[in-house]
Structures are given as C-alpha cells and as structure tokens.
C-alpha cells in the first residue's frame, strides 16, 4: 500500500508543473542525461520541444568505433502520442518520437551540412534532429526498443526528407539548440496531423547499430533516464 502511495505521489508531482513532466533529479549518474524536466509547448506555427538536464546538455558524445557495425548513438528523445502518419509515414507503425542525436561514425542527414564545411556526409557527430518510429524487439534485448526497420523489398509511405536508410526515420532539418543544461527544438507544424491533445514523455538513451545492420539495424541498448519513470506519456502539449 505504501509503495502504491509513493508511486501516486511521484506521478502527481511529475504533472504538477502545468503539463510538463518534472523528472527525478539525480537518478542518472551522467548528469548530462539526467532529466529534470521535459516539455512540449505550442507556439504560433511551431511546437517547441524542451528538455532540461542536471548538467551541460550535449557535453557527452559517443566514442567513435571507426565503422558502422557497433556504432553508438546518444540521444535526447520525446516519445509522443502522435500517429506515425502525422509526419509522413504510414499510419499506426509504432511510437512516433522526436530525437536529438549525435553519432560520429555515420551521417544520416544527407540534405544538410550541419558543420558548414561544404560536405553533407561527415557531420553525424553534430547534434541534429530526427523523427523516428519506435517498436519493441527482443532481438535488441528482452523488452528493448528499436527504430523500426523497413523490410527488404517493401515500399512503405515515407516522408520527403527520409534519409535513405532502411528505417522508419526522418531527417527534417529542425536544428536543435543545446545551451547550458537545456535542449530545445522548434518544429514547424505546417502539415502535421493530429495535433490535438498531444501526450509525451522524455527519455535519454544510448542506441547501437546491430551486427546484422538490418532487422534490427538500430537498437536502444541503454535507457539512461525517463522523465515519467515508466514511459506513461503523462505530459500534454499546451
């Protein structure tokens, strides 16, 4: 009974600050991924995604391994209740999430030159944004998630800015801002569907390119912190 009461108190505390989620500070050793608050706000023409962590956001990036297999991805993620069709995928494909990622061993934003050096294929280490569809796959580890694979030979509906990987991933070019202990991404809502009553959560996680390099390709291997504690999506965009 006491445990249930504590859980209820923590849940109410998480949503007491408007419709944002207040995370439990100090439950993640790496303070750059220790979520203090996650939020999505509506502004004229935009959704503003915000995550506040205990220390400098983006200060820690993956160590390069020099190849695609085993390459690591660090990420700040907002899982949402939006249907996958809202951003141009087929409908009902899984959990649609906005992710801010860094991965020095590969580039998945072929339309953009984030580091400004005139090349479009060498800046995966620069923090950048994606829409991804997440689904469970025990191949990645019992109860773990992955970015949903596109089966070989299939031709699903995909966003115009799909980067060509066999994944339900989009590279829309929304530039994240990492300043002090805050990650912010402004997402244009023109053309987005299902914007009423958006529910969300906040997650920091590590992913890794699987040895098969397909089915699964990109597994979540290390969930660092979850704002709600249980991925219940208690936040609501205001």
Give a brief rundown of this model:
The chain is mainly beta and 238 residues long.
Overview of the molecule:
With 238 residues, this protein is mostly beta strands. It has one domain (2-236). Helix content is 6%, strand content 33%. It has 1 helix and 14 strands. The chain has one helix at residues 2-15; strands at 21-22, 35-43, 46-53, 72-79, 95-102, 128-136, 145-147, 169-170, 177-179, 182-188, 199-200, 203-209, 218-226, 235-236. Strands 4, 5, 6, 7, 8, 12 and 13 form a 7-stranded antiparallel β-sheet that branches. Strands 1-2-3-10-9 form a 5-stranded antiparallel β-sheet. The model is unreliable at 1-18 (pLDDT under 50).
List keywords for this structure.
single chain, 238 residues, mainly beta, seven-stranded antiparallel β-sheet, 1 helix, 6% helix, globular, disordered N terminus
Helix/strand layout:
Blueprint: H1 2-15, E1 21-22, E2 35-43, E3 46-53, E4 72-79, E5 95-102, E6 128-136, E7 145-147, E8 169-170, E9 177-179, E10 182-188, E11 199-200, E12 203-209, E13 218-226, E14 235-236
Antiparallel strand pairs: 1-2, 2-3, 3-10, 4-5, 4-12, 5-6, 6-7, 6-8, 9-10, 11-14, 12-13
